[in-house]
Hints:
5 helices, two-stranded antiparallel sheet
Amino acid sequence: MTVLxxxxxxxxxxxxxxxxxxxLRPDGEDQYTISEVADFTGLSAHTLRWYERIGxxxxxDRSHTGQRRFSNRDLDWLAFVGKLRLTGMPVADxxxxxxxxxxxxxxxxxxxxxxxxxxxxxxxxxxELQDTLTVLDxxxxxxxxxxxxxxxxxx
Length: 155
């Protein structure tokens, strides 16, 4: 289940996740258990614990009994990490990004550079996928036609 509403963005117009009002609970009442977060995000509890252990998750609050209590802000972060995963960004780079966020505003330039590099990788993958789609569409059109051309390998 997606926690935030999907929006399209163009360079320079990306909103902060915190600006989105699509949370499951209002701020101040946003204490989610690890099993709730697993259900919301599709991530396993094991993965959530691993994210915390490797430094990909910011500090997660704990209840008086020691159970993790996730906030809307944590859900926003996990939604962003999910987008980074979809880009194919290596986990080590995601952890480095998380460390830069924790380090503060003086890392903005480095964060931007990492995201711009990732964006270029995504654009390259989109081009490859569009080329692949063109080939598939051609094959589908061949099979949809009345006369079938003989199948050739490599095309």
